[in-house]
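Appendix B, example 12.
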Amino acid sequence: MIFRERKYERFEYEAPVLYKAPDKNIWQYGIILDVSMGGLLIKSPNLPRKQSNLEIRLSNMIEGNFIRLEGKIVRFVDPPRGPAMGIEFLIPESSPELRKLIETIQISLRPIVNGQQATEEQKNEAVRYARELLENASYMDYYSTLELKSDVLEDDLGVKSAEIVRTLSIQYQGISENESKIIHEAITMVKRISGILGNPERRLGYDLSSGKIEPSVVEYYAKKYQMDMSEFMSFYSHKFPERVKKAEKLMMLTREYLDSGNPMEAQRTSEEARKLAPFHFKYGR
C-alpha cells in the first residue's frame, strides 16, 4: 500500500471560476474554495456527472483578469463543503500567473482566530510561540517539537497539529513583515512535520533514522493497513544487528518459559524482544 501526502500547499481563496469540458461550448460557473500549484477545489450546483478533463478560467481578483488552466476531476465533495469537485491540473506548476497569485496570497495570508480579529496580546503570544517552535526544531525531534509522545497515533496527531496551527493563525492589523514571516514559517513547519508523522511509511522511516521505534505503532500500522514490514525489517537488521541478536535470544527464552509453564515470564521476555526488534514480529489483523 502506498501512502501519499499532498505535494502542494493549499490556500483558501474564494473567487469566481468558469469551467467546461473541451467538447462543450457552454461555460459553467462556480466558486473556488482553495487553490494550489497542483489543483483547486470548485464549489458549484452544476457539477459534471463523471470525472473528466476541464478547461478552466480562474478569476484573479488581484490582477483583475482570468488565468487559463487545464485540469481533470479527481474527486467529488459532498455537503456541507460541497457540492464541490477537486481538480488536479494536467501540468502542475506550469502557470506563472497562478504562481504569482499564490505567492501574493501567501504573503498576505492572515488566518483568523475564532472568526475574530486578534488582540495585540494574542498576536504577541502567537509570535512568541512560533519563534519557540522554530528554535526548538533545530534539534529535529519531531515529536518533542509538537509536544507529543513517540507512540502517538494518527488521530491524536491530527488533533494536536490542528491545535497548534489554530493557535498560530491570527489576523492582526499592522502585524510586521518579520512577525508574519515567523508565524508562516512555523505553520509551514508544523504542517510538514504532521505530513511526515501522519504518513505511515515516512513516519517509520523517520523513526528508523533516529533508532526509536515504538512497537505499538508498528503493530497499529501492520494491522490497520496490512503493511509489508519486510523492507523495514531488513534495514533495521542491518542498522541494529546487536538488538536483533538480543531479541532472538529473548525469544528463545520465551519459548523455554512457555514450555515450563511460566506464561508471565514468557510475556515479559516477549515484550522485551518486541521492543528490541519491533519489525521482526508478525502482527495479525
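The two ends are 15 Å apart (CA to CA). The longest helix spans residues 177-197.
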